[in-house]
């Protein structure tokens, strides 16, 4: 079909990103923002326990093809990650529901930031993607995420407000 799939960073509505249970000074920007996520010493870190919820809205509708989630090799990297599509109000109270996908990452996958393919049929017409980190590699109380990359393509639609009258 000729659709170019790429890192969707430019399509993310970064001012509207939310992260629940992040530690002060170790927020989601360290894992998502260009420049920060390339620095292996910066993390989005959980605060009260090992769980995190990161909700990322997009500026326009996208189709997702794969994700890469990276963390340190010290046992604090994510292990079980549930991905939810178009659930903008995801919270710890409702993240136990059926996810669009559940990833069980190995230490090798998360240390290298291996690209994980997603089921294309489940990740079409996405306005918001949420990541629920349920636990980490070592089973400890702190989870560290150094990089999250979301790959896919924008769905080109017509913005009706931009149309001009004839």
From TrEMBL:
Coiled coil: none annotated. Belongs to the PITHD1 family. InterPro entries: Galactose-bd-like_sf, PITH1-like, PITH_dom, PITH_dom_sf. This is PITH domain-containing protein. Residues 1-166 form the PITH domain. It holds the Pfam family PITH. GO terms for cellular component: cytoplasm. The lineage of its organism: Eukaryota, Viridiplantae, Chlorophyta, Mamiellophyceae, Mamiellales. Transmembrane segments: none annotated.
